[in-house]
Automatic annotation (TrEMBL):
Annotated HTH gntR-type domain residues: 11-78
Superkingdom, taxonomy of origin: Bacteria
Descriptive protein name: GntR family transcriptional regulator
Source organism (scientific name): Pseudonocardia adelaidensis
Keyword Transcription regulation annotated: yes
Keywords: DNA-binding, Transcription, Transcription regulation
Length: 232
């Protein structure tokens, strides 16, 4: 029994370490295709190599990193087909969240959705933090609908799909293409107005189309860069 607390503490340390590495990958601080050197990570995070090694195993099992011959652990580059498959599933789940939110969303919550879209419209530059204002606003738009839907398992499943792909890449896709950015804002507006009108089927359809379009744009981004970072 006396060994249980240390084991629990070690497990918590590994989880915290994995979360810290994941955050750096998701933000782009550690880019896709980058090597994950245990010594460097240990020095950066102020821990020994043991929790780093276990954290990397955890991230590998989740599909965020992979181990390559002669390179060791690297941030995994998703295949375009993986992106399309994941976003196809996400589209249906997010559509369901919209259906559940209809009739539950309040005027204040509708106003918050519109405010997040105002941030996207203004397109403020990154403020030096790990998450840009536009990425935070986009995430909040979707997260608020998930909260209103009131189904924790649904929200967790959507979050798990999102966590399979570095968030900074999605931001780069929009930053690189003003037309896509404008379409993203318009799609958010249509989703918001469908929710305001209590039109469940329209809200589902608008959200589904929005997520499918986002997934296609992301998949094409990876395809265009496949000759430098994608490994089959």
């Amino acid at each position: 029994m006396e060994s249980d607390p240390p084991r629990r503490e070690q497990s918590a340390l590994v989880d915290d370490t994995a979360a810290a590495i994941r955050e750096r990958i998701m933000s782009g601080e550690i880019p896709i295709g980058a090597q994950l050197r245990q010594a460097d990570l240990a020095a950066t995070l102020g821990v020994s190599r043991t929790p780093i090694r276990e954290a990397l195993r955890q991230l590998q099992s989740g599909g965020l990193i992979e181990v390559q011959p002669r390179r060791g652990a690297v941030v995994r580059v998703p295949a375009p087909w993986e992106v399309r498959e994941a976003f196809e599933v996400r589209a249906e789940l997010e559509g369901l969240a919209c259906v559940r939110a209809v009739g539950e969303i309040s005027p204040d919550q509708l106003d918050e959705l519109r405010r997040t879209n105002d941030v996207l419209r203004e397109n403020p530059p990154p403020d030096g933090g790990r998450v840009s204002p536009t990425t935070a606003a986009n995430d909040r738009f979707h997260a608020l609908i998930h909260e209103i839907a009131g189904n924790d398992r649904l929200a967790r499943t959507i979050r798990d799909i999102n966590d399979a792909f570095p968030r900074n890449v999605s931001a780069l896709v929009l930053e690189d293409n003003p037309r896509l950015r404008a379409n993203n804002i318009t799609q958010h507006e249509r989703i918001t107005e469908a929710l305001a009108a209590n039109d469940a089927e329209l809200a589902r359809r608008e959200m589904r189309d929005h997520v499918i379009a986002a997934g296609e744009a992301l998949a094409r981004w990876y395809e265009r860069r496949s000759h430098t970072v994608f490994r089959g």
